[in-house]
Amino acid sequence: MTASASAVEQEAQADQALADLVRGEAAWALCDLPHRRRLLEQVRAATAAQAPAWVRAAAAYKGLPESSPLLGEEWTSGPYPVLTGTAALAESVRALEEGRSPVDGFFLGEAPGGRVAVRVLPHGVYDHLLLSGFSAEVWMPPGVGAESVRERAGLALRQPARTAGIGVVLGAGNITSIPVLDVLYELYAHNRVVALKLNPITDGLLDVFRAVLAPLIEVGAVRILTGGADIGTHLVHHPAVGHVHMTGSAATHDTIVFGIGADGANRKRNGTPLLTKPITSELGGVSPTLVLPGDWSEADLRFQAEHVATQRLHNGGYNCVAAQAVVIGADWPQKNNFLAHLRTALASFPRRPAYYPGSEDRVRQAQEAYPGAQTLEGCVLVEGLDPRAPGPLLTTEYFAPVLGVVELPGDARAFLDAAVRTANEDFAGTLGVNLIAHPRTLAGLGPALEEAIVALRYGTVAVNAWTGFGYLTAAARWGAFPGHTLNDVRSGIGVVHNAVLLDGPERTVVRGPFRPAPRSLLHGEASLSPKPPWFVTNRTGASTGRLLTEFAAAPRWSALPGIFASALRG
């Protein structure tokens, strides 16, 4: 489908694509596990071949010059996670081929509350070297035993011939790996053939996506469509479609499910959706960062201020899991020093094009709602927010470079308890929450830290890391905390990624080093990782991101020195 086609032509092309998929479902049902694994390997090879063009196309619509270190964002959030995701998913398919469980080879430990924790990272020697000090676990719900985890992993691939109809994927417009990864999850986890409808701002990636997904298009399992909201509406209500998956905001979700205006509000209130077929979703929220009080060095304050700035400003601030609120200790002696470093980090970040539609209007709305806000070079900063009188910054996802500061009293333990309550009860969304604390503070908390992680009702919890790292971890589950409904969707329903194909995972817990190397080693942290390449202040983000992507396409020892050299210069 071409972007220049008329609405009538686009609807006709959509109808033809769905007719193709009706036939394609039968062909997909005949693809056995070895064939499906080979298709993944072909998609991976195509991704490697298309990676430079992919990054160029993404940079073009985001307004990034070829010399910008921010191109690293496009490498590490575009082709890189598709390369790692296809590799991990192929490993799971191979396990099922050989009569094994996809979790075989992963360490299954214990998490609080009778939970099984599947350690999905590090997984292999390269992870230990390239992601030194970082880890990720997927926690299963309480009461699900290890044997059950093993037996149920694999999802629909345990019966590959039993297909589940046609699904529509409404592609994201911000992170360019999302549409491809969502298509793969629909196909492999749910056994649905897919009509992928691109977000119009990503139309420049149409040729890249066609090339990357060509093996699946040729077998009849995927069709890619373009067009506006009218084509999306036509697709999701088409009788041939049995399921919808979307990425976006809660407001967009409600428009799709219930309709617009007073009629839509009435349908939502009465529980009578306009869209009656199943829909899953990955939506955003406030995604707070909780900064525990402690005794930090000046270098610690500066690094973690850059960390928080990254959580807000990565990809221009247009991430579903971008931190929109930072919660700090009102009684923390270093509070003012930390805030000064945060202001400096936000102000020193160069202004970049506001490529996402409506961003400038949303920034203006924030400035009008908070007249005392500071307009820094890269961000609007609102200090002194009171969670007891929450305004739009804590209850609405701005999806723009706006950051609020909330202060809560107490020492580390009292602050943590209050911050967990505030994050659960006062902030919109449940996609991700970040927790930053000095290693001595974490040690002093003892079991209270794990209790806090359990209490936080978020799909991904990051300790001294950004939840965005959970997105990049192929075998981790990604999505809202379980339990939301159409009428109260918050950050969505269902999960994606999850390359181990776990059945019903509850959350992902990622952890990282408090300090970058070499300071980490000087202070006793077992981490060789320098400043992460996804930091917005990383000077060599583009080269490191490219080298990591090339490595993900063809892992080899000889590539490591170049990656380390680039990363250390960052």
What is this structure, in a nutshell?
The chain has 570 residues and is α/β, with parallel strands linked by helices. It contains 23 helices and 19 strands.
In words, what does this structure look like?
This protein is α/β, with parallel strands linked by helices and about 575 residues long. Strands 1-2-3-19-15-14-9-10-13-12-11 form an 11-stranded mixed beta sheet, with helices on both faces. α7 (about 180-190) links the parallel β4 (about 165-170) and β5. α2 (about 35-60) runs antiparallel to α4 and α4 (about 80-95) runs parallel beside α22. It is globular. The two termini are about 40 Å apart.
Short key terms for the protein model shown above:
six-stranded mixed beta sheet, alpha/beta, single chain, globular, eleven-stranded mixed beta sheet, 570 residues
Secondary structure: elements and pairs:
Blueprint: H1 7-29, H2 33-62, H3 71-77, H4 79-97, E1 107-111, E2 115-121, H5 125-130, E3 135-139, H6 146-152, E4 166-170, H7 178-189, E5 193-197, H8 206-212, H9 214-218, E6 222-225, H10 229-236, E7 241-248, H11 250-258, H12 261-270, E8 279-283, E9 289-291, H13 298-313, E10 325-329, H14 335-348, H15 359-369, E11 374-375, E12 380-385, H16 392-395, E13 402-408, H17 412-425, E14 432-436, H18 439-445, H19 447-455, E15 460-463, H20 467-472, E16 477-478, E17 492-493, E18 496-497, E19 507-511, H21 519-522, H22 541-553, H23 560-568
Parallel strand pairs: 4-5, 4-7, 5-6, 7-8, 9-10, 9-14, 10-13, 12-13, 14-15, 15-19
Antiparallel strand pairs: 1-2, 2-3, 3-19, 8-17, 11-12, 16-18
